[in-house]
Amino acid sequence: MSTRNSNYLSWTKASTLVLFTSSTLFLTACNDDNDNDISALSCSGNIAEITDCNNNFDTLYAAVDAAGLGATLSGGEFTVFAPTDAAFNELFLALGVTPAEFLARDDLADILTYHVLQGSVDATAAIALAGMMDNTARTVETATVALTLNGQDLFVNRAKVTSPDVMADNGIIHAIDKVLIPPSYFNIVETAQADGRFNTLVAAVIEAGLADTLAMTPDLTVFAPTDDAFTKLIATNPSFNSAADILALTNLSDILTYHVLNSKVDAAAAIGLSGRTTTPLYIAQDLAISYNEPALYINLSKVIVADVNAENGIIHVIDSVLLPPSANELSNTDVTIGALVTNLANAVDGAEFTTLLAALQQEGLDTALVGSGPFTVFAPTDAAFAEVGSVEDILALEDLASILSQHVINGAVIDSVSAFAANGTAVATLRPNTELNINIVMGALMVGNASVVVTDVETSNGVIHVVNTVITTP
């Protein structure tokens, strides 16, 4: 494969403010009043001649000419997924390059032939292929494209067909709204820039000064949060009002490098590492990898698109931003779990775990939790106990000791990362013959029927994770 130009360095922060609009054309309907109705324009001839004649394909025609493909597309029989001028302009803006710079790429011909299939494939055939189990088609470049349907819209990879079945003498043209990039042609930064789903991530990478690292370091794996993932973080974290707040973080570089492995790990290899932790570029905290069929998880984040190949590594798209876990502010490694629960329950202001302490004391388990351990305790809040009944009701339960015991894991400190890695498994509790199922459900860590709401309260003899429900179903 020829050497590629690296133009990502010309990206500017101002580019991140651009909003992209999506086409509203459908395969089954055209607006006769729309000047961009490509199929309605009176151009005829072979594929090269139509791209020359049709003013929606000026950049494509220039690229075909620059790559020396004009003669090829004037003969034979081909299907061309043709990016419009708007599609090229979107790519140029994302990469921060001029049309001339892009058309000077050594691999331009390969990029263009990735848009071309041998033979004629009309919209009907393409839609039929999109509905098959194997929905891929091999391009002239040799890599495959995937055809999918979303409602009435036909997509080629992530590009939407905006005008199908532009008939040429030697084949068919389908206009698309994005330029298709073959796997492994762009480096990781360029791949993220060109994709369109990672505007906030790219802005953060540039703000943190990591563009060189992620573009030039070989064999990286990046777990890439989408713009939607950043939006979710802002909506659920009171510290953030906008993406600008995230970009202003003093530990932004740490957060971003927590998403990066210094080796290439594809989805198959990641599944093989399920149940383990691994060290990212941010070496202060490990990442957990788990596979609970059919989903692959990194910590609590679900991999929604795996194996996006870049020139210098691989990208896995994730649905949540990864934040390096740290000890909770309630932590006190000078006291035991039993002592910390006692202290918190007896606090003058904001007392918590008063029902848990009363229950532990009644059943004689408070003394156990001041022992050497180590222990992992899933501690229900007072509100969690209140859902079961009054304090008197709780203390009157005949099996209270058993209920409390299934909130305790003896002999192991399971921090949050270790718990994430245990997704889809069960761990033995202090209650005899009882295991606690650990699962990740909709981005939350579940232990039995309870959701963990606070993690990593560290003590001298173990760790506490706060849960929002009394665990009654292990």
From TrEMBL:
Signal peptide: 1-29
Protein name: Fasciclin domain-containing protein
Pfam families linked to this entry: Fasciclin
Domain of life: Bacteria
GO cellular-component term (any): extracellular space
Domain FAS1: residue ranges: 44-180, 185-322, 337-471
Keywords: Signal
